[in-house]
Design brief:
Two copies of one chain form a homodimer. A five-stranded mixed sheet of chain A has the order 1-9-14-13-12, with helices on both faces. Chain A has a five-stranded mixed sheet with strand order 2-8-7-5-6, with helices on both faces. Chain A has ten helices and 14 strands. In chain A, helix 3 packs across helix 4. Chain A is an alpha+beta fold and about 325 residues long. Chain A starts with a strand and ends with a strand. The first copy, chain A, folds into two domains: about 170 residues, Thiolase/Chalcone synthase (Peroxisomal Thiolase, Chain A, domain 1, 3-Layer(aba) Sandwich), CATH 3.40.47.10; about 150 residues, Peroxisomal Thiolase, Chain A, domain 1. At the A-B interface, helix 4, strand 6, helix 5, strand 9 and strand 10 of A face helix 4, strand 6, helix 5, strand 9 and strand 10 of B. Chains A, B: It comes from Bacillus aquiflavi. Chains A, B: One of its GO terms (molecular function) is 3-oxoacyl-[acyl-carrier-protein] synthase activity.
Chain lengths: ~325, ~325
Amino acid sequence: MERSIKVIGTGIYIPKTVVTAEELDKKLSLPSGWTLKKSGVRVRHFITNETASKMGAKAAVQAVENAGIRLEDIDCIISGSGTMEQPIPCNAALIQKELSLEESGIPCFDINTTCLSFVKGFDLASYLIDSGRYKTILIVSSEISSIGLNWKQKESAVLFGDGAAAVVVQKPRKEESSHILTARMETYSVGASHSEIPGGGTKIHPREHAHLSEEHFLFQMNGQAIFRLSSRLLPAFMEKLFAGTNITMNALKAVIPHQASGMALRILQKKLNIPDAVFINNIENYGNTIAASIPIALHEAIEQGRIKRGDLVMLIGTSAGLSIGGVIFEY
Amino acid sequence: MERSIKVIGTGIYIPKTVVTAEELDKKLSLPSGWTLKKSGVRVRHFITNETASKMGAKAAVQAVENAGIRLEDIDCIISGSGTMEQPIPCNAALIQKELSLEESGIPCFDINTTCLSFVKGFDLASYLIDSGRYKTILIVSSEISSIGLNWKQKESAVLFGDGAAAVVVQKPRKEESSHILTARMETYSVGASHSEIPGGGTKIHPREHAHLSEEHFLFQMNGQAIFRLSSRLLPAFMEKLFAGTNITMNALKAVIPHQASGMALRILQKKLNIPDAVFINNIENYGNTIAASIPIALHEAIEQGRIKRGDLVMLIGTSAGLSIGGVIFEY
């Protein structure tokens, strides 16, 4: 079932501190060139004193400006992030506060399915927009990965960066046709431990940090296992994603994958046979910014004129869970 | 806009370990009777070795049995919990795994707005059901509060309990009229720090536990401030909640409030002038089980015959954020 939804503005916030592949080679005592070759990331950005809500608010202000609306026009704030700023309350409420909307009453909630949180938030927002429940929804993905990286697990640690993106959506006007054509998500928890942070929630309280190895509270990833599982799932998933539409891959003007790793992007592009001209790949500039990676790439593709009104765009990726998800929409 | 949704089954899981008000009086060196008087909670249950996903899975199995369906009929799993079992991946994926559905592909995601997470999950699920996106959604709220309580802050620590609830929803058959009449949520982040756990997320990593006081990683609550803010907001909120309907409070056969505290329940009942016969209050048996409190009470009210098909039911509460939210639905 198609749902009307129009992206009316996007914005990003990238922390100032630049960390180059060469710096990581030195920091981790690796041969020169190792980090870039393994990750495909030339530069990632790490926070200094930013919080996720501060980054998210800055991205939101830019998105609202680009949309030509005022902050007060927003009537729903969704955080679509894979990381929590605090265990309580939810990210969206903290972002509302940073936007000085603390007396606005704008409803705030979080949607979390790790790296696919933005995609799921956009998908769910379409029902709320199409039905008229809300008129102007702000979706924010703001991620601080740098605090939880395991530098002993070099292959994963060198992939990640911090960053935030925000997207404002509304119902299109009558003469406009922006909508979601199809959306699909599948979760295979057989891969739940392929990428995880075991400790810090209710299973292993932070107080256990004194007794357990630090690894329990850091990101762990089995890249090979993720690769095998997602390779097995991808063909059938893509078939089902397109099944409800009357288009094929050729109709897409842009494919925006989750920027998981340089290798993951190369394999995805090859497997799906996506031409360079439509494949949006910015991992060398930001690294894997968890759920923010897709909306950051969306923002850049729009800014660079690679996506125009009427174009069909695919968002696609995998996330911890393990989940695989995608949306095809008309911009 | 009304949305068709039918609760076809509910289930709960309550941990075996019983903690009485008298035991807490002794543990906290308080005069006999203090805990019960302050909290209204005679008995709360704390986990021994349960995880949130194990509790959620047990509640889900009961809900599926009560619904007369099989686990394999579920085509979407939503976790509506205020606590995370692990920072990564999301709760819903971990619950899928505990249900031995790890190769099912059933999509899993979390919705979090602390104590209102179930209410928001139910509200959002109605769009997915009404539109036909999913046929059978499992919504699970599973909460372990006991691990994060601050026993130096006695007034809040004595309120909480652990527990889980699950609800299965489908589209009603043609001859049935189960639906959501109205739903509303408002967030006022001016109260974001009135109840919070500051540490454990990306703002304060668990490694800081060694350097900061333990309070940073425990639940903090300013009950007076929450009370003042929610009392100010409630009247206008209720008016707007009912505005889109042609019913008044008198039409409700059950009002299921978030079981925040004995005092909060007394004040809510008095302010809204709700007769005992329709007011569902089970806090003395479970305490405040965060987002699980409303679906646990819903499950009991159905089991006890206090809610019958065709009855109008209100779910209502406040949560950290600070948010206020409510749904009115026909069971």
